[in-house]
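Title: Comparing notes on inverse folding

I've been comparing how different people in this forum approach sequence design from structure. To keep things fair, I'm posting one structure and asking everyone to reply with a full sequence. Here's the target:
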């Protein structure tokens, strides 16, 4: 993980990259606290973070709380897909002020998102894709159901002769 601080007037920017986990979340906390003491607005840039665990999320939450208690503005910018998944999973996307989401994985080097691959059409062995012919084979479930008689279908019957006993027929 690497951390870089930049101060531009009243705006402090914290650029994070790599993995934010238990081993380095205290560094994130300390850097956020340091910025809170120096500026009015804190922006944490997360586009190059490819992994974050609960301790990293806790460091961001603590930074947001400290900012609010000091009447400072705290926001996350350029959030990578990996980080956004964790934030949404924890339902924190409604708590954090998120200025922008990269819609891209942090591991990718290109600045443009890759186009989505087109779905391939594949035929199932149970489906006839010929346009002018009628289907010649029934689905497996329908065929099994049609082959079962009442005697072979599972059923539950109450036997009134034996009191409250229930008989299961397979």
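Reply #1:
Here's my take.
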């Amino acid at each position: 993980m690497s951390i870089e601080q930049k101060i531009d007037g009243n705006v402090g920017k914290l650029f994070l990259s790599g993995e934010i986990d238990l081993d380095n979340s205290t560094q994130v906390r300390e850097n956020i606290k340091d910025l809170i003491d120096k500026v009015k607005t804190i922006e944490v840039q997360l586009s190059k973070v490819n992994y974050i665990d609960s301790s990293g999320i806790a460091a961001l939450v603590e930074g947001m709380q400290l900012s609010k208690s000091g009447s400072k503005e705290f926001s996350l910018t350029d959030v990578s897909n990996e980080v956004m998944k964790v934030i949404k999973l924890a339902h924190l996307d409604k708590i954090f002020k998120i200025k922008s989401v990269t819609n891209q994985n942090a591991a990718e080097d290109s600045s443009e998102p890759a186009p989505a691959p087109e779905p391939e059409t594949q035929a199932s062995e149970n489906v006839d894709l010929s346009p002018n012919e009628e289907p010649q084979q029934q689905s497996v479930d329908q065929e099994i159901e049609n082959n079962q008689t009442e005697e072979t279908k599972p059923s539950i019957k109450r036997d009134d002769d034996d009191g409250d006993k229930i008989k299961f027929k397979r």
